[in-house]
C-alpha cells in the first residue's frame, strides 16, 4: 500500500480522518451553543476518560464547532506548576479578538480588564518591566478583576467578557485540557465563576477535559459542582465505531479490510481510538494490496506494539522513579490476582485495592503513600474511590507484565 496515502493519524491530539463514535457529544454541544447564545440556561461541560480515548481531539472539535457559530474561543492546558491567571488571560484575549465587537471602546475596556487580571499574578513590589503582559495594547483597568482573590477576580472577568459577547448575540467558550491539574484555589474560582454565569444568564461556558477522577476534584472544591457541569464520559469505541474508524478512511483511498482483519484489529486495540490509529497506520504500511487481510494484521502487529511501547507506554513509564515503577508493577500483578480470584479475564483499566498492592510489595500501605501520591500527580494513576487505584493509561498493566 502506498505509504504517502496512509490515512491514519496516531499523533497525540491529532484529529483522525474519521471521528467515529462521537456524534452524540457533537450534537449535544450544538444545542448548548444555540441555547446559551439565546440566553437560555445551560451547564458548562466536562469530558472525562482515560488517556488515548480522544478527549483532546474531541475538545478541539467542539472548539471548531463554536468558531463556526462565530463564538469567541480560547484554549489552555492546565499544568500542576502553573496558576490559572496567565494561560486564562491569553485564552480570553484570543476569544475577545474572535468576537470582533464593532465598538473599539467596549473591546478595549474588556481587554484592559483581562490585562489587569493577568498582571495581578506579579509578585508584590514587582516593577512594571517585571510584570507579565498578555500582549494587550489597552491599558489595565484598575479596580476590576485585580483584587488578588482569584474567585472574586474571575467572576468579574467572566462578567465583563460575557457582557461583550451578549451585546453581539454570541458567546464565549473557554476550553481547558488536563483540567484535573488545576490548583484547588483555581478550581474553586472556576466553579464559582461558572455558577455566576449560569445565574446571570451570561453567554460564557467552560468546556473541560480530564482524567476519570476530575468530577471528584470538582466536587471536593464546590458541593454544587455536581449540578454545575454536564459530565460526559468519553470511552472506547464499540465494534461498529472501530470498524468505521478503520474502514471509512481506507475507502476514501480506494482500499478496504476483510471481516477477519477488522475482527483482529478490534481485539488488539480494545476500541481505544489512539490504538486504532497506531495499528491502522502500521497495517496500511505493511499490507501489499487491498483488501487488507488477517495475515497483514498479524505481520504488522509487532510493529504497532513496538511503536506504542516506546511512544505511548514507555514515555510515561520513564517518568516514574524506581520505587514508583515497583508500585506500578505491583498494580499490574494485583489486577491479575483479582482476575484469578474471580475467574475473569484481566481488566487493566479496573481499580485495584491499595492494600493488595502493599501486600504484594510486602510493605504497609502508609509507607507507600509517597510513591502513590507522586504517581497521582504525574497522571499515571488515579483514584476513583477511596482505597482503590487504577491506571490512567489503557493496557498499561499488560505492557508492564510484558516488560517484566
From TrEMBL:
Annotated region (Disordered), positions in chain: 1-20
A GO molecular-function annotation: ATP binding
InterPro entries: AAA_16, Cyt_c-like_dom, P-loop_NTPase
Superkingdom to which the source organism belongs: Bacteria
PROSITE patterns: CYTC
Domain Cytochrome c: 166-266
The protein's name in its UniProt record: ATP-binding protein
